[in-house]
Amino acid sequence: MISKEFILKKIVQLLLHAIFWIAVLFCYTYFFGYHTENINYVFSFSLFLMPVTIGTTYTIINILIPKYLLEEKYLLFILYCIYTIIISAFFVVISFFYGLIFLTGTKIGDMAPMTRSPLFLFIAVYFVVFIASAFSLVKHNYKSNSDNQKLKNKILEAQLKLKEQELKYLKMQIHPHFLFNTLNTMYGFALKKSEETPEMILKLSNLLDYLLYHVDKPFVSLQDEINHIKDYIALEEMRFNDVLDITLNIQNIDHAVQIAPMLLIPFVENSFKHGRIRNQRLSIILELEHYDGQVKFKIKNSIFDSQEYNETGIGLANIKKRLLFLYKDKHTLHITKDEHWYEVHLNIDTTKGKIYE
């Protein structure tokens, strides 16, 4: 069923075309009426010339331009333009003889000065055709740019939704990975019936609160992420007891600074998961500072042999993808290792605007 908006649009288009051709008719009358007072003759002659002008114009703007010029079929466009000009020129000549024979009775002296030469008639007709064709090309160009912009916006929206879906998928992978590590630690405490189990449950509840109510936010405060890391480390300290040797150095934390949630914890998890006890100690050094809009995060853990260190864990792979999505060209990540240490250096620029650029 044809909508009212479509009918209204067509009516407006017809009115605009009608106004344009009425204006052309009056311009013809004014142009051909130069140095003559015979208005009836000039108007009749202009009216007879209108179908030639209208037919030529619509042939070019409705057929030749869209089907050949815009489709880059230039040779066919030129060829059919020549055909159109020849046919229209024939009818322009007929218009000349119409004015000479039917309006003046073959008395060329009674013709309006501007209609005595077919050259002026050609100029008048093809000038209108040129103007209309130019407007048509501008309209097609504007419509093409508008359609391209809409298509570009749709592609960007689709890419954004795809990134959002992939980020959700990555988070869904991180959550079970994180919970598995934490619950596995708690299971060990429960088996030993440790008195520290209630405190461990409290720490875990804090982590779950962060996990459930903050991780879906695009940004959280850096301080919240630090508190999350501290709770996780406290759980691990309970598990490792005197075996763990951990150093925390956190400086210049601005409470207004925000980062993506669960961004740093996978590195901390990996340090505990893949770190190795050397000289009866699992050594971990964590440094975090913020200045001039830069978040600088460094963590290193002891290992036995760099050849044995596994970098294929889910957490590390996901965090690399998240960094590319969220902080493309706004972060640097360097991972180094030797025979004794595995180090991660992560710098994030929090001053460069928005996510998903």
Keywords summarizing the entry:
about 350 residues, Heat Shock Protein 90, 7 strands, rod-shaped, two-stranded antiparallel sheet, disordered C terminus, five-stranded mixed sheet, 2 domains, about 65% helix, alpha+beta
Question: What can you tell me about this protein's structure?
Answer:
The protein is α+β, with helices and mostly antiparallel strands and 357 residues long. The protein has 2 domains: 4-116; 162-349, Heat Shock Protein 90 (2-Layer Sandwich). The protein has 8 helices and 7 strands. The strands form 2 sheets. Strands 2-4-5-7-6 form a 5-stranded mixed β-sheet, with helices on one face. A two-stranded antiparallel ribbon has the order 1-3. A hairpin with a 2-residue loop joins strand 4 (282-291) and strand 5. The radius of gyration is 40 Å and the shape is rod-shaped.
Topology:
Elements: H1 4-32, H2 39-69, H3 74-103, H4 118-192, H5 197-213, E1 220-221, H6 222-240, E2 244-251, E3 258-259, H7 265-274, E4 282-291, E5 294-302, H8 314-326, E6 331-337, E7 341-349
Parallel strand pairs: 2-4
Antiparallel strand pairs: 1-3, 4-5, 5-7, 6-7
Helix pairs in contact: 1-2, 2-3, 2-4, 3-4, 4-5, 4-6, 4-8, 5-6, 6-7
